[in-house]
Specification:
The complex is a heterodimer of chains A (345) and B (335). Helix content of chain A is 26%, strand content 25%. By secondary structure, chain A is an alpha+beta fold. In chain A, strand 1 and strand 2 form a beta hairpin. Chain A starts with a helix and ends with a helix. Chain B starts with a helix and ends with a helix. Classes of the chains: A alpha+beta (345), B alpha+beta (335).
Chain lengths: 345, 335
C-alpha cells in the first residue's frame, strides 16, 4: 500500500491542467516501463493500458481515472506587468486570493502570487466580499508588459503551489488529489499483475466537461465501466449532517446518482455487497451533486453500464485537497474485488 | 551582507503578535553581531544599544518583529480548531490555506472551505467566527496536542520572483528589521554621529504596544521607525500606493517630525538614494505613533518599504527597496 501513496505524492506534485496532461502521461509510461502491458494513446492524449496475454474475462471492463486537474490559464497582461487569469475547471473564488502559484512556460517554471487590493484599502461593503478571480491579478515580479512577456505567454497554464503533506491521523493534503488518487490506484492495480485482461484508461479533460472519457470509451467499447474518483466530503465544522455528502474515514463512496449520471443499479448494489464481504467500509453520497467521467462514458456507443468508486475528499478543487489514507487503501481493494465480480457478471 | 539570505532567516520563524519568541530569537542573534548587548525584554521585544560618547544624542531605530496570524480559542466537538485573529490578517486569503499551529510540537492544518453546494453566497468573504482549522485529528486527540492560545501562521514558502522580488509571509515587518540590520552592516567600523539603540518591537499588529514599552526604557532623543507600506496594484486610487523598485518611502505626516522629514529627504537627494514620498494625513499606523508620544515625546521619522498584498501569505517586495532604506538610515547616522 505504501506504493500507492508514493505514486500519489509524485503525481500530485506534477502539474497538468485539462489539455496539458503530458507530464502525467510521461510519469505513467515511465512507471510502467518494466510491466508486461501494452500502452497506447489516442488523438486527445488518453492513455490506454491493457495486457492481451492475460485471460480474457467474460465481460470487457474499462477502469478509468482522469489525469487532469483544475488550474489557471493566462488571459492577458497589463501594461504594468500584472497577469490576468481564468480558471480551467471549477475553482471557487474563495480559494484564489493570496495564493502562491507557478506558471508552466515551455520547460521552465515561473513562480508568482495572486493578489490585489490589500485589506486596508477596502471600503465598507468591500470588506466582506470575496474578490473574484476576474478582478485580481497574478504577479511574477515583472515591472512591465514587455518584461512579463519574457517569461509568460498568453495561453500558458498556471498551477497552485502546494506541498504534499501527511498530517493528523493518516490524513493526506495536496493539490490535484482529484483525480491523481484514481491514477495512483490504477497504477498499483496494473503493477499487481491481476490475471485478467482489463482496459485501464487514464483520461484527459475531465475538469472541462469529461471530454476525454467519452472518446476513450468509444474506442474501447467496454461492457462495463468502473470510474475511480475523488468526491466532495463536507464533514467539516459548522455543516449540518444532510449537507455533508459523505465522510472522510468512512470508506469508499459509491454514488447512486449525481449531476451527470444515474448509476447502474445492479452495480451499485454489487459494490456494497462486495465491500461487506471483504470487511471494507462503504458509503453513498447524500447529495445529488458533482459529476465525473461516468457522465460521458455511460452515454457512449449505445450505452455502457457504469459505476463509480470514489474516495471522500475535503476541499476539492482547492490547493489543499484532503483525504484519509485508509479510504484510499480500501478503495484500492474494493476496485480490484469489484473488477473481478463485474468481469464474470 | 546578503540581503536575501538575511531576510529569509528573519521570515522563517513564526512571530505572531503576542507570541514573538521564535522570530525574536532569530532577530536577536543577527542584531548581536552588531550590538553585543542585544537581548529580548519581558514583552518579546529585541533591544540593544551602543553608546560611544555621552554627548551624542541617542537615536532609536525601530522595526516591529511581530506578524499577523491567528490564535486557537476553541476546539469543537468534531475536532476543528476555532481561531481568533491576532492582528488584521486578511480573511479573504484564508480558505484552503495550509497552516502551522505552534503547539509544543508544531501541527499542520488546513483552513476549512465550503464546497459550492453549501456556500449560499459565494460573494461573501469568510467571517472571523466561521474560520475553522482541520488538523486531521479528533477532539480527544487535539485536547492532548493543542493548547488554547497557541499561535497559528499560514504556510508560505519564501520565494524569489523576477527582478529580485521576494514573496513570503511576515515580510511585514521582517523587511524593516532587515533594513536596520543592513544599515548597521554599512556602518561597521565607521565613526557615528549618534549613540544608537535598536528595538525590534513586539505586538505592533495589536496596536503598537511593544514599541511604546521599549521606547520608554530606551529613552531616545529621536527615532526612525521602519515599516512596510502599500505597494502598487491594478485599479488602485491615485496616490494610495507606491511602486516596488522606486526606493525607500519617506513618510510625511502631522504625527511625524517635520524637521527630520526634511533632513532625511535632503540626504536621500544628496546621496542619490532612490526614494519616494508617502504623505499621510494624521497618524501613520506604525510604531512611530507609539514611540513619538513616549515620555516627554520623541521626534520621529518614518521610512517604509513598499509591499504588495499586505497581511496575506503572498506579501511581495523588491530587495532594492530594503537596500535603499538601509542606505538612507546609514547616511543619516553618518551625517
Amino acid at each position: 500500500m505504501e506504493r500507492i501513496t508514493n505514486f500519489l505524492r509524485d503525481l500530485c506534485l506534477l502539474n497538468a491542467v485539462s489539455g496539458d496532461e503530458l507530464d502525467i502521461r510521461k510519469y505513467i509510461v515511465n512507471a510502467l516501463k518494466d510491466a508486461s502491458c501494452e500502452i497506447s494513446f489516442d488523438n486527445l492524449g488518453n492513455l490506454i493500458v491493457r495486457d492481451k496475454n492475460k485471460k480474457k474475462p467474460k465481460n470487457k471492463i474499462m477502469i478509468c481515472a482522469h489525469m487532469d486537474e483544475v488550474g489557471f490559464v493566462v488571459r492577458g497582461i497589463t501594461s504594468d506587468g500584472f497577469i490576468s487569469l481564468s480558471a480551467v475547471g471549477g475553482i471557487s473564488d474563495s480559494v484564489v486570493f493570496g495564493r502562491h502559484i507557478c506558471f508552466k512556460s515551455g520547460d521552465s517554471e515561473i513562480y508568482g502570487v495572486i493578489g490585489g487590493k490589500p485589506i486596508h484599502h477596502l471600503d465598507g461593503d468591500e470588506k466582506d466580499k470575496q474578490p473574484k478571480l476576474s478582478g485580481i491579478y497574478a504577479d511574477i515580479g515583472a515591472n512591465s508588459k514587455n518584461d512579463a512577456e519574457k517569461f509568460i505567454s498568453l495561453g500558458d497554464f498556471a498551477y497552485f503551489r502546494s506541498e504534499f503533506v501527511k498530517f493528523g491521523d493518516n490524513y493526506i493534503k495536496g493539490k490535484a488529489l482529484d483525480d491523481r488518487l484514481g491514477c495512483a490506484v490504477m497504477l498499483d492495480m496494473i503493477l499487481s499483475e491481476l490475471d485478467i485482461d482489463m482496459h485501464f484508461v487514464f483520461t484527459v479533460q475531465e475538469e472541462i466537461g469529461a471530454r476525454g472519457a467519452g472518446v476513450a470509451a468509444y474506442a474501447v467499447k467496454p461492457d462495463f465501466a468502473l470510474v475511480l474518483e475523488a468526491t466532495t466530503a463536507c464533514d467539516i465544522s459548522g455543516v449540518e449532517d444532510e449537507n455533508q455528502v459523505c465522510k472522510i474515514g468512512n470508506g469508499t463512496v459509491v454514488p447512486f446518482m449525481d449531476k451527470s449520471t444515474v448509476y447502474d443499479k445492479q452495480l451499485y448494489k454489487l459494490a456494497f455487497e462486495t465491500a461487506a464481504e471483504n470487511n471494507l467500509k462503504c458509503q453513498t453520497k447524500t447529495q445529488i451533486a458533482g459529476g465525473n467521467d461516468s457522465g460521458t462514458i455511460h452515454k457512449t456507443a449505445g450505452g455502457i453500464r457504469t459505476i463509480c468508486l470514489a474516495a471522500p475528499c475535503r476541499y476539492l478543487h482547492s490547493p489543499s485537497c484532503v483525504i484519509k489514507e485508509d479510504d484510499l487503501f480500501e478503495m484500492r481493494i474494493l476496485a480490484e474485488k469489484m473488477a473481478y465480480k463485474i468481469a464474470e457478471l | 551582507m546578503n540581503l536575501k539570505e538575511t531576510l529569509k532567516i528573519l521570515c522563517e520563524p513564526a512571530g505572531v503578535a503576542g507570541s514573538e519568541n521564535a522570530a525574536s530569537e532569530a532577530a536577536c542573534e543577527l542584531l548581536s553581531e552588531h550590538i553585543p548587548n542585544a537581548e529580548i525584554d519581558n514583552f518579546g521585544t529585541v533591544a540593544g544599544s551602543m553608546k560611544f560618547d555621552g554627548n551624542l544624542p541617542l537615536l532609536l531605530l525601530d522595526a516591529h518583529i511581530d506578524e499577523i496570524g491567528m490564535i486557537v480559542k476553541f476546539i469543537d466537538d468534531k475536532g476543528f480548531l476555532k481561531v481568533g485573529r491576532a492582528g488584521g490578517i486578511d480573511r479573504r486569503a484564508l480558505p484552503a490555506s495550509q497552516v502551522t499551529i505552534w503547539s509544543k510540537k508544531p501541527i499542520k492544518g488546513i483552513v476549512c472551505t465550503l464546497p459550492p453546494h453549501v456556500i449560499k453566497d459565494t460573494v461573501k468573504a469568510i467571517k472571523e467566527d466561521e474560520i475553522a482549522i482541520d488538523c486531521g485529528f479528533t477532539k480527544e486527540e487535539l485536547d492532548k496536542l493543542v493548547s488554547l492560545g497557541d499561535p497559528v501562521t499560514i504556510d508560505a514558502q519564501f520565494t524569489e520572483l523576477q527582478n529580485d522580488r521576494i514573496t513570503a509571509r511576515a515580510l511585514d515587518d521582517r523587511a524593516g528589521v532587515c533594513a536596520i540590520l543592513y544599515a548597521l552592516y554599512l556602518l561597521k567600523g565607521k565613526k557615528l554621529k549618534y549613540n544608537l539603540a535598536v528595538t525590534f518591537s513586539s505586538q505592533e499588529e495589536l496596536g503598537k504596544r511593544g514599541a511604546g514599552i521599549a521606547a520608554y526604557s530606551v529613552n531616545p532623543d529621536l527615532a526612525i521607525a521602519v515599516d512596510v507600506s502599500f505597494g502598487d496594484y491594478p485599479g488602485a486610487k491615485e496616490n494610495s500606493t507606491w511602486k516596488l523598485g522606486n526606493g525607500v518611502m519617506i513618510g510625511s505626516a502631522p504625527s511625524l517630525d517635520r524637521g527630520l522629514f526634511e533632513d532625511v529627504t535632503c540626504i536621500a537627494k544628496e546621496k542619490n538614494i532612490t526614494h519616494q514620498i508617502e504623505v499621510m494625513s494624521g497618524k501613520t499606523s506604525t510604531d512611530a505613533d507609539a514611540v513619538s508620544i513616549t515620555r516627554n515625546g520623541v521626534k520621529c521619522a518614518l521610512l517604509s518599504i513598499p509591499l504588495r498584498n499586505m497581511h496575506t501569505p503572498a506579501e511581495t517586495l523588491q530587495l532594492s527597496d530594503i537596500e535603499a532604506t538601509g542606505q538612507l538610515i546609514a547616511e543619516f547616522i553618518l551625517r
